[in-house]
Amino acid sequence: MILRDAVRVLVANWDGSYTVPSRTLYPHQWSWDSAFIAIGNARWSPRRARSELLTLFGAQWRDGRVPHIVFNPAVPEGAYFPGPEFWQVSAPSGVRTSGIVQPPVHALAAWRVHLAEPDPAFLRRIYPRLVAQQEFLRAARRSPEGLISIVHPWESGMDNSPAWDVPLAVVEPEPSAFVRRDTTHVSVEERPTDRDYARYTSLARAYRDTGYRRSDAFRVEDPLFNTAYGVAEVALGRIARVIGLDPEPHAREAAAVTSAMAEHLYDDGLFHARDVLTGCLVRSNSAAGLTPLMLPGLPRELVNELIGTGLDRFGVKDGIVPSFAPAAPEFDPVRYWRGPAWINLTWLIWRGLRRRRPDLAAPLAEGMVRAVTAAGFREYFDPFTLEGHGCHDFSWSAALILDVAA
Ligand code: 9WN
C-alpha cells in the first residue's frame, strides 16, 4: 500500500523527463532531490531514474558545476522565488538555471541505478559528467586542507540549519525588495524567517554579481557536503571499474577527503562545519555531523564515537533522526532544518549504519516507514509526534521509502 502510494506521488510529480520535488512549493528540477528521486525510481522504473539524472546533467555548466535548480520555462515567472529572473543565467544547453550547487550525491545515485538494472552504456554517458562535477568542486571550492566549501546555505541543502547562524550573522541582510512564494504554500512557522531570506538573497546576489565566481561573505566546509563528495569518489571508483577505467584515483581522493575531514571537522563525538573565513570550527548539534558514517574509510574509533553521539544526542534507535539535537537550545520541532526529521537525512545516516550496525539501521528504516504511514509523504516531520510539516506529496520522501522498503 505504502509502496503503491509512493509510486503514485512520483508519477504525479513527473514532468516528462524529470521529477519536481513538489507541484506547489518547488515546481522546477532540483539537483540533490533528483539524485534521491533517481534512487527511488530505480526500484520500479530504472528508465525514469536514468532520465532524471541525464536531464539534470543536461544543464551542467561548462565549468562542470551542476546548478541547484534547473528552471522549467513552462512554469509562470514568480511561481517560485528566487526564479530565473533573479539568477539571470543559463546553461550551455540554453535552459535557465541557478548558479549555486547542492551536495553531490549523484554519483551514488548513478551507481545505485546501475545496480537496479545494469546499463554500462548509461554509466559511460554519465561518468565524464560526474567527474566534471567533482572537478568543478576541486577547482573552485577546495581549501589547502583538502576540504570543499559551500558559499551559500542553500548549497548545504539544509538551508536554515542552526549550524549557519554564526557564519550568517556577518552577512548584511538585504532590504526586502522581494516577495516570497514559499509562505503562500506552507505556514510561516515551518519555513525560514524573513530575516534569513534577506540574507539568502543578499548572498546569492553578491555571488551572482561576480559571475558566480567569488564569495567573500560566507564560505564554510560542511560535513554533509564533504561526505557526499567523498562518497561520490567511492561510487566513481566502482563505475570506473565497470566501464574499464582506472578506479585508483577515485579511491585515493575518497581516502584524502576522509582524512582531511577527520583532522579538521571532527570534535567531541560529532563532525562540524568549519568557517573558512575565520578558520574556526562552528560547533553545533546538526545531524549533518553524523553523515560521515557513510564514508567507508572512516577510522573505527570515530565510527564508534559517532554512533554513541547518534544514540545519546539524536535518539537514533527510536526512528527518524531529528535534523538538530533535541536537547540543544536552538532545537525547534517544526521549523524546517532546525529540528524536524527529514527522510533524506535519515536515509543518509541509515546508509552509513546499514553494514556497520544493522541492529541500528533497522529501526531507522522502520521509523521512516512509520512517519510516512502516520502523516503521508510530507516534506518533514516532528521527530516526536510524527506530525507532518512542509509540503504534501514531497518526492524524495516517496522515493527513499521505495528504496528502504524494497
Ligand atoms: C532552496 C527542494 C529544495 C531542497 C532543499 C530544501 C529546499 C529550497 C527552498 O527545497 O530548499 O533550494 O526554497 O527552500 O532546503 O534541501 O533541495 O526540495
Secondary-structure map with pairings?
Elements: H1 2-12, E1 29-30, H2 31-41, H3 46-57, E2 69-70, H4 84-87, H5 106-116, H6 120-141, H7 153-156, H8 165-169, H9 182-185, H10 194-208, E3 220-221, H11 223-242, H12 248-264, E4 266-267, E5 270-271, E6 273-275, E7 280-282, H13 300-314, H14 343-354, H15 358-375, E8 380-381, E9 388-389, H16 395-405
Antiparallel strand pairs: 1-2, 3-6, 4-5, 6-7, 8-9
Bound molecules: (2R)-2-(alpha-D-glucopyranosyloxy)-3-hydroxypropanoic acid (9WN).
(2R)-2-(alpha-D-glucopyranosyloxy)-3-hydroxypropanoic acid binds next to helix 2.
Description of the structure:
The protein is mainly alpha-helical. It has one domain: Glycosyltransferase (Alpha/alpha barrel), CATH 1.50.10.10. It contains 16 helices and 9 strands. It has a 3-stranded antiparallel beta sheet. The chain has a two-stranded antiparallel sheet with strand order 1-2. Helix 1 packs antiparallel against helix 16 and helix 5 runs antiparallel to helix 6. The chain is globular, with a radius of gyration of 19 Å. Bound molecules: (2R)-2-(alpha-D-glucopyranosyloxy)-3-hydroxypropanoic acid (9WN). The site of (2R)-2-(alpha-D-glucopyranosyloxy)-3-hydroxypropanoic acid (9WN) has 10 residues, from helix 2. (2R)-2-(alpha-D-glucopyranosyloxy)-3-hydroxypropanoic acid binds next to helix 2.
